[in-house]
Design goal:
2 copies of one chain form a homodimer. Chain A is an alpha+beta fold and 193 residues long. Chain A is built from 9 helices and 8 strands. Chains A and B meet through strand 5, helix 3, helix 5 and helix 8 of A and strand 5, helix 3, helix 5 and helix 8 of B. Chain A binds a DNA duplex (30 and 30 nucleotides) through helix 9.
DNA sequence: AATGATCCTTAACCTAAGTTAAGCCCATTT
DNA sequence: AAATGGGCTTAACTTAGGTTAAGGATCATT
C-alpha cells in the first residue's frame, strides 16, 4: 500500500508509533495522476502537501511572455507544494504538473494541523525536512549568483543524475534559468572537451 | 535586556510560558560584535544559531577568484547561520561577517536540541520560521531564473527598502549576482527613465 | 502510412552583463 | 596636510547567453 511507503519515509527521520501511523493513514488520500495533469494551477489555492509515491512532477511559474520557469522537481519519496499559497490561503501564482504518470498521497491543511497538534513529532519531522530543503535551495541560490550556466548544468548532472536521465533537456534548461537552445550549445561544447 | 527582544520575537509566533522563557534565557549568550568582525569563517564549524538584536550581518561564499557572493543579510530580529555546517557538523564553506557594529544572541546546538526536546513548542516555532525563510528563498530563485538584473534590483528595493538604504551598493550587487559596475549602469538607466 | 507534437540541434545575429582601467568623492588614519 | 582605502561612476571593449528561424529526429495518435 502507498501509505506504507510514506510511513517508511517518515521512519527514516523518527520512527512512528502505531497511533501515529494509523492517524496518518486515515488523514492521507491516494490519487493517480496522468502525465500533463495539473494538481495545482495559477489562482487555485494550494490546499495540500503532496508526497510522490511514484512518477515525477514539476513546480513552475509562468512569466509575462508565457515562458515557464521550473522551481522544483519532485519524484519518488519527495514532497511538492506551493508553500506560500498553502500557508497564506491565498491564490497561487504557480503550477504543479505531472511530468510522468504518477501516484501521490495528499494531506490536507486541516489534517496536517491536526497531526501537528496531536503528535508533536510531526512538527519535528517537518522541521527537519524543510531545513534540508532550505539548505538545498540555498546552495542553488549560491550557484545562481556565482556560477556560469555551464557550471550549473554540470553541477545539476552531478547532483541529480537520475533526474537528468529522466527529464527532457528543455525542462532542465528551464530549471537552470537558460534557454533550451543555449543548453544545446553547452552540451556540444562539453562533449568536445 | 537583549533576551527580552528574543522572547518578544518568539511571542509573535507562539506565546512562551514562564518555564520556556527562563530555559531560553539561561541557554542563550549575548555578544557584542564590531564592524567587519567574523562570527563564522570558512573551515570553521558553525556551532550556533545567531539572532541579531541590533546591527547587520551578511552570509556569503567566496569563489575561486576571491569574489564574495552574498547569500543572505540579517538585521534586527532576524536569524543567521550556516544551516548546512550546523546540521552536519562539518566545516563551513561560508562566512558570516558584521556589516555594522552589532549585538547578537547565540544559541549553541546542544542547547537548541535541549529546548526542542523539553519544549516541543520550539520545534513548532522553528518549523514555521524556516518555512517562511524557505518561501522567501524560493521567490528569490524564481527571480534569479526568470528576471533581468534590472527587475531583480527593483524588486530588491521594493522588498527591502530599509536594507537598501543601509547597505553599500556593492553589497546589493553581490546579493543580486551582478558586478557593482553593472549595478551602477542600471541605476543610471533607471534614473533616466 | 501519415499526421502532428515535442524535442533537439545548428547557425546568424543581437543584447545583457562582465572586464579592465581610470578618476572622483568621502571618510579615516598618519 | 597628506595619504590611504572603500565606494561609486564612466567608458571602451569583450563575452555569455538570448532570439529567431529552420530542419531533423523521435514518438504517440489516427
Amino acid at each position: 500500500m502507498a501509505t506504507d511507503q510514506l510511513i517508511a519515509y517518515f521512519n527514516t527521520y523518527i520512527p512512528l508509533r502505531e497511533s501515529e501511523r494509523s492517524e496518518l493513514n486515515s488523514r492521507v488520500v491516494e490519487r493517480k495522476i496522468k502525465r500533463r495533469q495539473f494538481i495545482l494551477q495559477e489562482n487555485d489555492i494550494c490546499k495540500h502537501y503532496t508526497f510522490v509515491v511514484s512518477g515525477c512532477f514539476k513546480l513552475y511559474g509562468v512569466d509575462k511572455n508565457g515562458t515557464e520557469h521550473n522551481l522544483q522537481f519532485a519524484s519518488e519519496n519527495e514532497w511538492i507544494t506551493d508553500i506560500s499559497s498553502f500557508h497564506s490561503g491565498k491564490e497561487s501564482r504557480l503550477y504543479i504538473e505531472a511530468i510522468e504518470p504518477s501516484i501521490i498521497l495528499q494531506i490536507e491543511k486541516i489534517n496536517l494541523i491536526y497531526l501537528y497538534h496531536h503528535h508533536p513529532k510531526f512538527d519535528r519531522i517537518f522541521r527537519v525536512m524543510i531545513e534540508n530543503k532550505f539548505e538545498e535551495l540555498q546552495n542553488r541560490v549560491l550557484q545562481n549568483i556565482s556560477s556560469t550556466a555551464e557550471e550549473r548544468y554540470l553541477a545539476f548532472l552531478a547532483q541529480y543524475p537520475t533526474l537528468a536521465n529522466r527529464l527532457p533537456n528543455t525542462q532542465i534548461a528551464s530549471y537552470l534559468g537558460i534557454t533550451p537552445e543555449f543548453l544545446s550549445k553547452l552540451r556540444r561544447i562539453i562533449v568536445k572537451k
